[in-house]
């Protein structure tokens, strides 16, 4: 089995290329395809891949491939899709009150809320150093996104209506809740990872299809039903976006099963910084001092969270040797007397 650090690194690389591929898929700054079809096709891709792997696993060792088919277990799997659906609507509502840069910065709250829900719902104890590392990660990612203080965006951060901040906090909590609940599902029994994925992505495909149908009704079917425009405007880059989105989803489910949410949070946070660095070379993005400071803070956070305690705190050897030295001194004093 792969080590979680390799999967996390792969997730970081794929996630960092997501935004870049999406930008490259545009033509003259516009999408020639219906962007809402991308998540649907990504869900279908994840479902097909998981189905193939489940079939292979069952064919190889049917006795060890555990699949719980009871309704009381299956009925739990639509819940992450429902949470994400609500989260997406809250995202749009938040953007009506705050600008994009403020929303991005507030989005870093999900790092801290994930740690809190991770502790409350999954009963996973974190050390004081690990809590400090999580807060540092949120500070580092926020620092990297803050622009120069002379710019208008700096003022807009504190001038949004209270509704914007409340919705931003709710969005962060929903994002964390979806991740923590998915981890609970993946670890609640010893079912095959691929069987759990099949259940997750079946409901994911259904909910994404429902969104496309709702978009049709809202638009009065001006562009025709969604299945007729499913592949219209797709290029090689667009298909790369679909494959990238699907692959990152499969890696996240693996991490949820064999690692945890905090590993995923670190991977996606590092991916955001890597995306910004790559944008410097690909899109002539001007790096700022805040970006480099944010990267340094995030690397410190990464070391603090995952390094063994003895690598973080130096215990002086003289403390351990003290009892022996005291014995020697007392013996010498007795012989002198």
From TrEMBL:
Coiled coil: none annotated. It comes from Turnera subulata. It comes from the Eukaryota. Pfam families: Nuc_sug_transp (PF04142). The chain crosses the membrane at residues 35-55, 76-97, 103-122, 129-146, 166-186, 234-256, 263-283, 289-307. InterPro entries: EmrE-like (IPR037185), Nuc_sug_transpt (IPR007271). It is a multi-pass membrane protein. This is CMP-sialic acid transporter 1. It is found in: Membrane. SUPFAM superfamilies: Multidrug resistance efflux transporter EmrE. Residues 1-19 form the signal peptide. Belongs to the nucleotide-sugar transporter family. CMP-Sialate:CMP antiporter (TC 2.A.7.12) subfamily. Keywords: Membrane, Signal, Transmembrane, Transmembrane helix.
């Amino acid at each position: 089995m792969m080590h979680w650090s390799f999967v996390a690194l792969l997730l970081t690389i794929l996630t960092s290329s997501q935004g870049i591929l999406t930008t490259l898929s545009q033509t003259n700054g516009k999408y020639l395809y219906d962007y809402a079809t991308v998540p649907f096709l990504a869900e279908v891709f994840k479902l097909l891949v998981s189905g193939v792997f489940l079939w292979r696993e069952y064919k190889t060792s049917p006795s060890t491939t555990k699949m719980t088919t009871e309704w009381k277990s299956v009925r739990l799997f639509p819940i992450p899709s429902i949470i994400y659906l609500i989260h997406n609507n809250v995202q749009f509502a938040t953007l009506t009150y705050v600008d994009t840069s403020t929303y991005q910065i507030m989005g870093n709250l999900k790092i801290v809320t994930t740690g809190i829900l991770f502790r409350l719902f999954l009963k996973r104890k974190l050390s004081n150093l690990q809590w400090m590392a999580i807060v540092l990660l949120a500070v580092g990612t926020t620092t990297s996104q803050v622009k120069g203080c002379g710019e208008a965006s700096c003022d807009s951060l504190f001038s949004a209506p209270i509704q914007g901040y409340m919705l931003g906090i709710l969005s962060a909590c929903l994002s964390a809740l979806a991740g923590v609940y998915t981890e609970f599902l993946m670890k609640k029994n010893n079912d095959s990872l691929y069987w759990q994925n099949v259940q997750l992505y079946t409901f994911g495909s259904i909910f994404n299809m429902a969104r496309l149908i709702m978009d049709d009704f809202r638009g009065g079917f001006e562009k025709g039903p969604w299945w007729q425009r499913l592949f219209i405007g797709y290029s090689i880059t667009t298909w790369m976006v679909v494959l990238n989105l699907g692959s990152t989803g499969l890696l996240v489910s693996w991490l949820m099963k064999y690692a945890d949410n905090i590993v995923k949070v670190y991977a996606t946070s590092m991916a955001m910084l890597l995306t910004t660095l790559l944008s410097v070379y690909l899109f002539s993005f001007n790096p700022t001092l805040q970006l480099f400071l944010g990267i340094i803070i995030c690397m410190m956070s990464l070391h603090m969270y995952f390094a063994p305690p003895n690598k973080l705190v130096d215990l002086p050897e003289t403390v351990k040797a003290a009892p022996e030295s005291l014995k020697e001194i007392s013996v010498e004093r007795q012989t002198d007397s």
